[in-house]
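Model it.
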Amino acid sequence: MEIYVAENAGFCFGVKRAVKMAFDAAEEHNGKVHSLGPLIHNPQVVERLAEKGVQRVEALTEIEEGVVILRSHGVSSPQVIQDAEAQGLHIIDATCPFVTNAQKYARQLVDEGYQVVMVGDRHHPESQSVLGHAGGEILVTEEFEEIKKMMNKFSKKRIGIISQTTQTYGKFSEIVVKCLQICEEVKVFNTICYATEDRQTEAQGMAEKVEAMVVVGGKNSANTTHLADICREKGIRVYHIETAKEIEEGWFSGIQKVGVTAGASTPDWIINEVVEHLKKL
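Modeled.
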């Protein structure tokens, strides 16, 4: 069985930056560090951080003193930062710069009077972060019919569109084109992370050349799930796993070529373990 590994698999810039900031903080502050929510969407990395003293909490009220790290997906509103300052906590902002951009553009569109749409998952922490920072009424959806229903309520057909940073370009462009058909004015900010585009393009190309794909990453990771969906569109076997322990030998019966890619929150050591396990098969 031939094994192909994507060049762009694994940590993106934002995740690598956040993880380094967390490990550095743990070392500098003797482990008295808290992460407000999981730092990234990878349970194995979160577990390793905990071993170094970076403890996950869900609310500032769980922290008495010390350091609080703001997760890579951002916090739910600027008020959270103000509350942390009021508690006298040392704040380390590990919000991905691409998420910060999405927050900024959402706020700008609201201030300019556009009806704002974010193409993404409304329940994802990144989306909640953008909503909280923008203020105003923003619709977060991946369904054009929801947008159409919203726009029917307004006489002035002006819409501003941004995207969750891990959204697929296909879905984002589809929504934009359809909105042009029902709106007088459409203002678009492309807030998809370039690393997301690279991974999606490479995964799509690889899925055309192999008979099965192994996509490695957190089950709650949006960008990893999108990678798996893109590969499935090619009609091949696709297995979304978090670690090598999940691999079953029977998955690759009769398979000659298998591809491996990984989401932006997946560390190299997990990818390497998966590849070595496949080699043993």
